Amino acid sequence: MASTGGGAPRPAPEARDWASLPGEILFDVFRRVGLCEVMMGAEFVCTAWRRVALHEPALWRRIGLDEWCTQGCHIDKENDMKKFIAVDRSAGQCEAFKGTLLAVDLLDLTKRNFVLMPHTVLVDFGIGMGKKSLPFRAPSLKTLDLTHNDEEDSIEELTGALNKFPLLEDLRLSITYMFFEDENLLGSVFKACPRLKKLVVMYASAFDLMCSEEDFSMEPIYGDITLMPELRSLELYDCDLSFKALHDILDNCPLLESLYVHGHFDKLEMDEDLRLKCDRVRNLTLPIRSAYYV
């Protein structure tokens, strides 16, 4: 007779007490799932999880550089406001930030009291923000990926704000509008951030300006570049680089190892002296066309 295989049933596995996970394990889990996922869900699971989310500043050292979700966000401003809250949680330990900011917003990252602007639309994150003042500080900022799209800010306002981050080493600046002819963004950034080791400037493209390639004029770079003793990598996009500007860059960036320029440059103007300076740059890419001979 076949065996029925009977016996005592296996006991049900014990339910895990997720709230009792050690703080260092939760820290590692939160870092892996992403900060936005923490803010939009994980921190509301229980008091222990929320305690780690709110009181572990090291968790919030790098904000917005990885994929930043848009769950619950109807406009970009709400998404950036979540990043401001993350900066607040870093308690001054934020070292890297990526976002779309006005000059006044950038300055607010350096202040203890950040007053929400009237045009700011907020999402309720369960902390009762309303329109109260919030402490935002990033004195340790070393990496900044900034999109700036308000042409009412002057270069002086923008670079004046950048100047408030003395430890800044890596800057990526995306501009979505054209400057006045006598404005010198690159030279002003060099003066404001003399300790930069890497700089990427993306000037306005035809797409940003909503015009055709035929009607698009690239941002001119004429020169007047100040000394950048620590700069090792420079990338310039959608610009019209002059002969003098290239000379100034090579003369004033003694440690430059990589230079990439996308846009226009008239190689017919290059003389032997400039070619010798170019040879000192390990990785050099210049445009193959000029603004006049395409």
Please provide a written account of the structure.
With 294 residues, this protein is an alpha/beta fold. The protein has a single domain (62-285), classed as Leucine-rich repeat, LRR (right-handed beta-alpha superhelix) (Alpha-Beta Horseshoe). The chain is 29% helix and 16% strand. It contains ten helices and nine strands. Strands 1, 2, 3, 4, 5, 6, 7, 8 and 9 form a nine-stranded parallel β-sheet that branches. The protein is elongated.
Radius of gyration: 25 Å
**Stretches where pLDDT falls below 50 for ≥5 residues?**
70-75, 112-136
Form type: elongated
Cα end-to-end separation: 92 Å
β content, as a range? 15-25%
Compact overview of the structure:
With 294 residues, the chain is of the alpha/beta class.
Please specify the SSE layout and strand pairing:
Layout: H1 23-33, H2 35-40, H3 47-55, E1 62-63, H4 76-89, E2 96-100, H5 103-108, E3 143-148, H6 155-162, E4 170-175, H7 185-192, E5 198-202, H8 206-209, E6 219-221, E7 233-241, H9 243-252, E8 258-264, H10 272-279, E9 283-285
Parallel strand pairs: 1-2, 2-3, 3-4, 4-5, 5-7, 6-7, 7-8, 8-9
Helix pairs in contact: 1-3, 6-7
Primary descriptors:
single chain, 294 residues, Leucine-rich repeat, LRR (right-handed beta-alpha superhelix), nine-stranded parallel β-sheet, 9 strands, elongated
